[in-house]
Amino acid sequence: MSPPHPWLSVLVPFYRVEPYLRECVESVLAQVDGGVEIVLLDDASPDDCGTIARELRKSHGEVIRLLGHDRNRGIAEARNTLLADARGDYVWFLDSDDLMLPGAIAGLKAAIERTGADLVLCDFRVVRERMALKHRLRGEYHRSTFSGRDNQLESDRGVLLRGLMAARQLHPWSKIARRSCWGTAPFPPGRVVMEDMAAIPALVANVRTFVHVAEPWIGYRQRPGSALATLDAGKFRDVLASVRELHGAFADDPGLDARTRFAIDYFCIRALSSVAHRITGEQPALARELRDTLQRLFPGGLRVLLEECRRRGWWLRRRRISKGIERLERLA
């Protein structure tokens, strides 16, 4: 049996990841201590993942628990199910095609013992079948998930939001938090991509203290079959919905200063601008939805935001946003 009162639950949902699942789980098993549980969830995977998970459960029953959905419900509901079942004081979401890098759990435990933080932010390394010099030059061996001070206990919510928005890495697997900080069912059911973006407001609302450890603890695998490898109309709409929810969650928050509001606005306009650049002339309905989202989020227009970009010397960023919006107006 896994520990009844673990200090950490590692939560791994899986679906169609047969080539990667065993390596993922074994990367965690190689470093667990007596107070760590691994909870796997079979989201009705049609390949041989279920067999692999049962074998791992049989061999490591003292650590691993295995859950299952009767039908495929998607990553958001899978994470919500795992969160509801977790027993650890802290929870760490891990995607089933990724890896936990050596020393990650020991590093996390040391950070918690040193700071007692509600939230620990870690960095990651990109994992490819073949790593070339260009990938190293892009910084793929160490990607930061937070823009701000490292290894310092912080309690300012504005600092947390600005650091997250600037780094633009909102995935849950780089955010190890007290189980209570995630709330209940923070991931919107049915959303295929960017469901993590929509979950950030709930996490930020419940975190009192946090620390960023500038070490890559996760190996983020780049593969062609991932959810973000191709973006169809449904996934585009998921992005729009998550951006609206993220922006709306903080729109009327009186506790946020102008710098933090700009950081949120800029993050959202960057996300929408990226979508605009990927819409084709055969997708006018999607272009109209994106334009409507822009008008809803920025009813007074983008002049103030673009002027702030100019004031900061962000000429290339400002130009990219402007080009995206111009293209959108032509398509819509």
UniProtKB/TrEMBL annotation:
Q: Does the keyword Transferase apply?
A: yes
UniProt keywords (A-Z) are:
Transferase
What molecular function terms (GO) are annotated for this protein?
hexosyltransferase activity
Q: Which domain of life is it from?
A: Bacteria
Q: Which Gene3D superfamilies match?
A: Spore Coat Polysaccharide Biosynthesis Protein SpsA, Chain A
Which residues, if any, are the signal sequence? none
Q: Which SUPFAM superfamilies does the record associate with it? A: Nucleotide-diphospho-sugar transferases
Per its UniProt record, what InterPro entries does this chain match?
A: Glyco_trans_2-like, Nucleotide-diphossugar_trans
Question: What PANTHER family does UniProt report for this protein, alphabetically?
Answer: GLYCOSYLTRANSFERASE, UDP-GLCNAC:BETAGAL BETA-1,3-N-ACETYLGLUCOSAMINYLTRANSFERASE-LIKE PROTEIN 1
What's the protein here called?
Glycosyltransferase family 2 protein
